[in-house]
Amino acid sequence: MATVKLAQCDNGKGLTRNETLLIANGAPINKVIAGKQRLYEFMKMLNTELQRAGISPIEPEGSIKGRILDNKEYDGRLVLSDVWESEKEVYPARTGTLVAYNKKDAKLGDVVKYTDSGTTYIFEVPKEYQNEKNAILVVNHGFRADGNALILPNEKGKEITYDITDKSQIALLQKFPSSNGWYLADKSVYNQNQKFGIPLLPKTSSDNPDARYLYRIQNYVGLLTRGTNVLDIDFNRWDVGANGQPSLRFGVLISTEGAKAGAQQ
Prior knowledge:
By secondary structure, the chain is of the alpha+beta class. It has one domain (about 5-255). Helices cover about 15% and strands about 30% of the residues. The protein has helices spanning about 15-25, 30, 35-50, 70-80; strands spanning about 5, 65-70, 95-100, 110-115, 120-125, 135-140, 150-155, 160-165, 170-175, 180-185, 200-205, 210-215, 220-225, 240, 250-255. The strands form two sheets. Strands 1, 2, 3, 6, 9, 10, 11, 12, 13, 14 and 15 form an eleven-stranded mixed sheet that branches. The two termini are about 20 Å apart.
């Protein structure tokens, strides 16, 4: 799998959550990045990384379509290997794993909402999951067989609704913890988490190789984050952030396998 450092985190070159999805889905880059100076700096950095991945450089009005690496793939780079050492400038990074959860002991309801910097982010809950409590909804970024994106941010004024174009890809994970801490991930005793690697009950020790440290807030809609402060504190490679503010500029890694530069796919 070819990968590209689509956005670095240092020097303000990262992307917001909405920009991350729009660019990965193939939106024209000059329609996503605001400001000539930032666009110039982003294109300079992006084209350097594209060429390293064997992809031709593109113009500011062009686009590149690629699947955002999901939480488990980041885990393989940060915890299960030393790949992260060669890409430190990307972190902290957003993953392609979109999640939504509600307050402790509250039903998911028909929608889950999260507000940051005046913008409300909305996840519409499938009917069969609306009565669930202490659970988390999860879907990984990707593309349908027809080439259309699986996760589409639909912006209307101060609201962004994440449209899931194939709702059968939305998973419900139960036993989602109500507080920060070390929990089992990947090999949960509930055997429901092999695809996503999200920390679930029961609580465990940091000595457990299958443990990851979960950060959560009261309620949330957004992409999981990984590698917080990885340059300074080594143990943060084990952190899974279900609390990353969408307005912050984080790095991101995408798979460029089969991607064509300069054209919508």
